[in-house]
Amino acid sequence: MKQLAVIVLLLALAGGAYYVLRQELEKNPAVLLDSSPAAEQVEMRPARMAVAPGVVEPVSEERRLGFEVNGVVHEVMVTEGQPVTQGALLATLRDEEQRAALAAAEAEAAAAQAEYDKLIRGARPAEKSEAWAAVRSARAIRDQALKEAKRREQLAAQKHIAPEEADRAWKDYRVAAEQYEEARQRFVLVEDMFRKEDIAKASFQLQSATARVREAEAALAKTRLRATVSGTVLRVNRKAGEVFSLFYDSPVITIGNIATLNVRVEVDEKDVARVRAGQPAYVVADAYGDTRFEGTVTRVELVMGKKHTRTGDPAEHMDRRVREVLVTLRGTPPLVSGLRVDAYIDTGTTRAQAAETTRGAQQP
């Protein structure tokens, strides 16, 4: 009997406590937070607030940079925390093979250029002068042979010489005429030494050699790692002498623009209809107690995705679908990239207010 009385008493106390709590919640509509220890320090939140876990990241996102080819790291030019500008050289691979290939390609291109220039210019002036002199000499010999043949023909007609001598003179003239024609053809060939087909072939060979130079330059450029954005070096993962492989998912250097910080928030599917760009928000982190870092929702993804951020709660369901939301923080808060935080988004803001807030956040 005593045990039954105790049970009845406990039930009565539980019912009374539930009634009192319900009355209190009706007066002040709020719910308890259970997302993380940081969230527990903020004891209650208004019902219009959407709470979700997030991770701090640079406004440019973290850029995990690696080489385009496998190789051995030759030199790393930067250190963690160092500011860099877009295009700055960060690291290099050993490049002996690439440099040799480039030198060979440049030599082939130079030879092709010389051959093409020779065809375009034609024969040298000395060659042309020599060929013209041969034409003039052959022409003089031909003219002299013609005069001699005519003179002997007249003498033969007057019977001063035998007809055979006149025939020999005409034969000498024909030989001289043929030699003159050969000299003239040789001069024409020297004057216009190369055919259009030869010049076109040389042009194509030059283009091919030039393309091989560009290919070798591109191969050499792949041994250089450059910054894709201006920002700060967040992490250096490789040292000189270490092997880099495309088959191993590990960047050489990670950089990001931390002048402005974003928080990538994973909003639960039950709250996605209430969250939109322009709404005010703030985040809290375990390391900073109840300090609030104010911001604005600047982007809402168009698709749902898998949950990636873990809060550390054993009862957390990782199979829930979430919608990623970007919250841009104001000023320069002392948060670091990769820090896990809890975000509070004021979903009670009207669409007009949200649009005005978004315009204000986008202004420099």
Automatic annotation (TrEMBL):
Coiled coil: 90-122, 199-226
Domain named YbhG-like alpha-helical hairpin: residues: 95-220
Lineage summary: Bacteria, Pseudomonadati, Thermodesulfobacteriota, Desulfovibrionia, Desulfovibrionales
Keywords: Coiled coil
Protein name: Biotin/lipoyl attachment domain-containing protein
Annotated SUPFAM superfamilies: HlyD-like secretion proteins (SSF111369)
Keyword Transferase included in the entry's annotation: no
Statement: the UniProt record of this protein carries the keyword Coiled coil: yes
CC annotations in GO: cell envelope
InterPro entries: HH_YbhG-like (IPR059052), UPF0194_transport (IPR050465)
Pfam families per the UniProt record, alphabetical: HH_YBHG (PF25881)
Compartment annotation: Cell envelope
Matching PANTHER family: EFFLUX SYSTEM COMPONENT YKNX-RELATED, RND EFFLUX PUMP MEMBRANE FUSION PROTEIN BARREL-SANDWICH DOMAIN-CONTAINING PROTEIN
